[in-house]
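Reagents: none. Just compute today. Amine oxidase domain-containing protein.
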Amino acid sequence: MTRTIAVVGAGVAGVGVADACRDEAAEVTLFDKARGISGRAATRRRNGCRYDHGANYIKPGGDDWVEGVLAELGSDGLADIELPVWTHDADGVIAEGRAGDGPKWTYARGITQFAKRVRKRGGASVHTETRIESIARGSDGGWTLTDTDGETYGPFDELVLTPPAPQTADLLAATDWDDDRLARLHAAVDAVEFRTIRTVLLHYPFELDRPWYALVNPDRDHPVGWLSREACKPDHVPDGEGLLVAQMAPDWSVEHYDEPLDSAADAVASLVAALLDDDRLTEPDWVDDQGWRYALPDSSIDADDARCAEDAGLYVAGDWVAGEGRVHLAFENGRTVGQRITGQE
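Predicted 3D structure written out:
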């Protein structure tokens, strides 16, 4: 019998669930509030540039399986960012990073290609621009979803929630199911902390030549938490131009989250110019931004709590379940959940 599976969130964890079910007797439907898929691994295009304004790349670390998956998805457009990531401290002192930090995989067409290729090979159906507002469990055990327009979907045999923990907690709070497992799961999810990051893009009509791809402030005590050169990625920035991706530290991001882009970008450009000791950088010729209210997990959910409602067909998945904000870990966590649903684990 074919099982029906609803997945709220079409980021990398959501497509990971679908990927694990692709050869099984399962019909997967993805729901996402955005216009496209891939979640926080997001790519945007503007003025001839292409830029990743959430997750910057896929870094396997010691997980050898990642490169096998990337090869399966197709190597066309796949590229390793060869220049290293260096560090900077609270005083803006820049230092070389660790040698041999391993590959940093991206795509010429942007990091969204990963989720798009995974979904394509799995064939899951997707409802975009669909914000799920409430959930109900029927007397027959099926799960029904209702969106903000009042449209209902289901019932489904299984339900997987993959948004960041605070948004998943909101969905659980809006779930009609009289069961102690719901209260336990909601409390555990609600306790997971996320940090806020505002990304500001700074474009310049000249190239920026540096010996590094990016700078990171590991101690989180500089207003600029991350600064990268998008021109280091193939086909992202035209020759003769420069585009910096500044991901601001959580404290700065919270304080300036709702500040108009023009004034926020002026402040960021001044900070970046001081960090790189280059006054030209105070005057970008165009800017863009993205606020990530729930950018990265600062904690994770207890594994037993995360699985406490699975025997009723309710699952959670994502980087906050895996325990670290990494693209490949979120994907693998989604695949693991999909394998449990279909009895592969």
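DSSP finds ten helices and 20 strands in the chain.
Action item: order primers for follow-up constructs.
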